[in-house]
Amino acid sequence: MRSYGKARGATTDQPTERIGWSVMLSYSGSAFAAGYLCILVNTYVMKFSTDVLLIAPAVMGLIFGFSRIWDAVSDPIAGYLSDRTSLAFGRRRSWILASIIPVVVTFYMVFAPPALDTFGLTVWMAVAIIGFYTAMTVFLIPHMSLGAEIAPNYLERNRVFGYRHSFYTAGGILSLGAMYILIAAGEAGGPDLIRLRAPQLAIVAACGAVVLFVWLVWTVKERADGTGRAVPRPTKAFGDVLKNQHARRLLIITFIEQMGSAAVVVTALYMTQYVVGVSWLAPILILAFMAPSAASVPLWLWLSKRYGKMSAWVGAMLLTAVAFASAFSIAFMDDLHTRVMMILATALISGFAAGAGGTYSPSTQGDVIDYDEYITGDRKEGAYFAAWNLAYKTAYGVMLFLTGFALDFGGFVPNQDQSMTSKIVIAGLFSLLPAACNIVGAYLLTRFTLDEQECNIIKAHLAQRPRDWRPERPAS
């Protein structure tokens, strides 16, 4: 444990200041819209592209993989510019406002491709997917940074990001309704009916997102003391992220944990249709995962107070690993009812455990940012959340890339009964990969040392510092 000294009047007791419900609902409401858009794209677009547009899985894997390469450029730029913005409207709200039109336009493009040949459709989807993820970067990094800024203390930060996770997940649950409509359209009228319904649903979602994003920008105010305290050089900002021992470990944990989550999201539709044998089960499966994830947040908030955030998080990851490892057996089950019950049980248990990561991960990121301010005197939430957002999206990109090639390797044939090899590949991606990721992540979390006591001492020091404090440079 690092020695921080004793700030005048400092105590490890938790401050009681809380964020009002109007601010909490406005901030979380925008996460609801983002959850709908992102989860529908993450869960359905791969299958939409391969089964409806008939683009090869490996080609879609390359598109998603390239989008992650582009994120390596766009995420740091978005974080750095957000930190450096000094407009009167706010450094976070200005970027959120600017992101609204690009987000909804590219979302519509994803689900409304025109009648083109295979090459034309491939180009269209590449532009739409990369454009959507870029626009969401411009929204999500300032949005996460804003959440870290408005939370006044350690436990309240858990509350802010816990409710954000609940609303984001609830938006994802609503997107399952859209997915169900599209799946039903495919069974009733084939790909042509899906292509008719998808743009209609996209327009409704885009209008709702605009309303909720504007509500956030209009109602949530930023902290004035953060403006003008960013690092002038981007290399210095991201160098500080990599120098921060807590940030490095949390980046690795985030990537590993999200690799497991991405495996589930990306392969769920394939798993239900081709391994379980019930295509319409996919929305129910994802609902069985998301509903307990959102509903369990109050329990995880209580457990963090009772046992500590890290201990509760480790337990949740180990529970997730056990649940998913069990699901691999589905590929070898003959009875349909048993397969359905097994995969639903896996979703319910792992969804319950996922509420911990959704709450604790961004909350812990905020703690790490406070530690950075203690060391450097700078406020650079944008740079930090850009790094974590890049790790998050890179995990999804890598998983989409691997899924595309793994399906081809396993002999996957769209809309046909699969070989046993193909079923084993799909089941392994859905179960064994997330199980392994969660075991590794749990081990790394046991090595994380920035706890509540340290965070409260750091907060006390920061409260007593002058705004223009900077660390002393060693004499040359």
UniProtKB/TrEMBL annotation:
GO terms for molecular function: symporter activity. SUPFAM superfamilies: MFS general substrate transporter (SSF103473). Keywords: Membrane, Transmembrane, Transmembrane helix. Pfam families: MFS_2. The chain crosses the membrane at residues 21-46, 52-73, 94-111, 123-146, 167-186, 198-220, 250-272, 278-303, 310-332, 425-445. PANTHER family: MAJOR FACILITATOR SUPERFAMILY DOMAIN-CONTAINING PROTEIN (PTHR11328), MAJOR FACILITATOR SUPERFAMILY DOMAIN-CONTAINING PROTEIN 12 (PTHR11328:SF28). Belongs to the sodium:galactoside symporter (TC 2.A.2) family. This is MFS transporter. It comes from Sphingobium algorifonticola.
